[in-house]
Amino acid sequence: MQLIRKIIVGQNPKDAMAYFTGMVVGRSKVTDIVLDEEHMFRHGKKRYLIYINDPAEGTMLWKSIDDMPCVVEFDCKF
């Protein structure tokens, strides 16, 4: 599995919405961005899942991005 560090969603990256690991969302933080491989296998479409960690609730699915134009930045260790 490749770790995704950042995803930019939208037709034009300059006007699009970006999500990245460590991003603060209210009192939570984005912990993981993953490509839903099962969805791709079953439906032939890409879907990205964004998970957050809330101090009181734990880790939960926050957003899914279904079949949208995206720029994906992977977490590369140099």
Summarize the structure.
By secondary structure, the chain is mainly β. It has one helix at 37-43; strands at 4-9, 17-20, 24-25, 28-35, 47-54, 58-66, 70-74.
For the sheet with most strands, the description reads: 4 strands, antiparallel
DSSP, total strands: 7
End-to-end separation in angstroms reads: 18 Å
Helical content band = under 10%
Portion in strands: over 45%
Q: Give start-end ranges of low-pLDDT stretches.
A: none
Main β-sheet, spatial strand arrangement: 3-4-5-6
User: Helical region count?
Assistant: 1
Number of domains: 1
Walk me through this protein's architecture.
The chain has 78 residues and is mainly beta. The chain has one domain. Helix content is 9%, strand content 54%. Strands 3-4-5-6 form a four-stranded antiparallel sheet, covered by helices on one side. It has a three-stranded antiparallel sheet with strand order 2-1-7, with no helix packed on it. 10% of the residues are buried.
